[in-house]
Amino acid sequence: MKSKEYMDRTEQSVLHTYNRFPVVFEKGEGVYLEDVEGKRYLDFGAGIAVFALGYGNREYEEALKDQISKVIHTSNLFYNPPLMEAAEKLVKVSGLDKVFFTNSGTEAIEGAIKVARKYAYLKDGSTDHEIIAMNHSFHGRSMGALSVTGNPHYQEAFKPLIGGIRFADFNDLESVKAQVTDKTCAILLEPVQGEGGIYPASQEFMDGVRKLCDEKDILLILDEIQCGMGRTGSWFAWQQYGTKPDVMTCAKALGCGIPVGAFVLNEKTAKASLVPGDHGTTYGGNPLACAAVSRVFDLFETLDIIAHVKELTPYFEAKLDELTARYNFLAARRGRGFMQGLVVTGRPVGEIVKKALENGLIVLSAGSDVLRLVPPLVIEKADIDEMVKRLEQSF
Ligand SMILES: *Cc1c(COP(=O)(O)O)cnc(C)c1O
Q: CB under 6 Å to ligand 1: residues?
């Protein structure tokens, strides 16, 4: 069967919520994907910042196969070994204390919202608490996560959303302060905004928000779903700012392809929020998902992924800066580590993404005008050179 037939038949039975690119992927190896026609694509999108280890990592696959032949699912009514292992490793690298595993990023955000509401409820018994989120943020598509996503375009048709959400401007501490009331229970932000257009937080903003939260006993929720898991050169982006959250959300690269997310709490928050009966999930943290998470942490250690990202970042950034200098329609580069954006002016970024695909290169867009590069964390210099070559062909 050729691409055309797959595409036509897919459109007949899959709800049309995506304008998919006309490519049908069949398999992957390393940092390349291959479509059903046998054409290979250098992947600087990594399944939207998911496939950090690249495709076909043997040890990762062995962990999944081993777990499949033991047990895939048991429910959260019981214990299982991978759950313990995955949670211990996430606690260790985050320096936080308690983990709740979910199936996706949006569910991790839902959990974090419930944690914040319950924490505040236990303090004063009232049920009108507010959360401050950022304009241009992205936190997911379920109703709670959509409610804190600062993009009216995604929200409009689905109102009424959950109440008590206020929006402030990212990297503008005064605008956050202006939204604080005596009902504020949490401030939620991405240390590096992803979907919104690759905007790293400033140090002053992170410091200021942390201080504000401490002064008023407001929970700081950091969404590390896209910028976490080594992508910016530390386990989590907040670690480079030194601003530890009370609650952190992760997903995307956490399972490197197995659908899994988590919200992670510090001791203070864990002791005074969710208790048995407050929250649950049938699948969340099931043995297969946790076997993936556990092996991902092991492989990050043995492959020294974070040191690799740190080491290669200056080269990656220099190559992108060269492009920005060479092409007038590239206005700027923004980003941290292997989460980079090129601001495109005067032509639609979607055209470049499409052209790049024709030239065997996967890149993404973000916001309205940003070319987003979120490659697997195992890329080498030669892959960066090849990316630059294919991207220039696409200009
Ligand atoms: C992708 C993303 C989400 C939503 O995750 P899903 O797994 O798609 O539900 C939330 N927050 C951020 C920062 C993301 O990048």
A: 104-106, 109, 138-140, 190, 194-195, 223, 225-226, 251-252
Based on the domain organization, do 273 and 312 belong to the same domain? no
Q: Are residues 172 and 50 in the same domain?
A: no
- The helix (run of H) or strand (run of E) holding residue 190 is none
Parallel, antiparallel, or unpaired for β 130-134 and 98-102? unpaired
List the domain range (segments joined by +) for residue 33. 3-56+304-394
Which run of H or of E encompasses 217? none
How does pLDDT run across 80-114, given as a tens digit for each residue? 999 999 999 999 999 999 999 999 999 999 999 99
**253-282 pLDDT per residue, tens:** 999 999 999 999 999 999 999 999 999 999
CA distances from 98 to 189, 267, 311 (A): 20, 7, 31
Atom of ligand 1 nearest to the CA of 137: 13
pLDDT range class, residue 233, cuts 50, 70, 90: very high
> pLDDT per residue over 105-148, tens digit each?
999 999 999 999 999 999 999 999 999 999 999 999 999 999 99
H/E element holding 167?
strand 165-168
How many C-beta neighbours within 10 Å does residue 100 have? 24
- 106 and 236 both lie in a single domain: yes
Q: Which two tokens stand for residue 26?
A: 């069949």
pLDDT at 187: 99
| The two three-digit tokens of residue 319, written as one number | 């190559």
Give the nearest ligand 1 atom to 48 CA.
1
3-state secondary structure string across 115-138:
HHHHHHHHHHCCCCCEEEEEECCC
- Angle of helix 305-326 relative to helix 287-302, nearest 10 degrees? 80
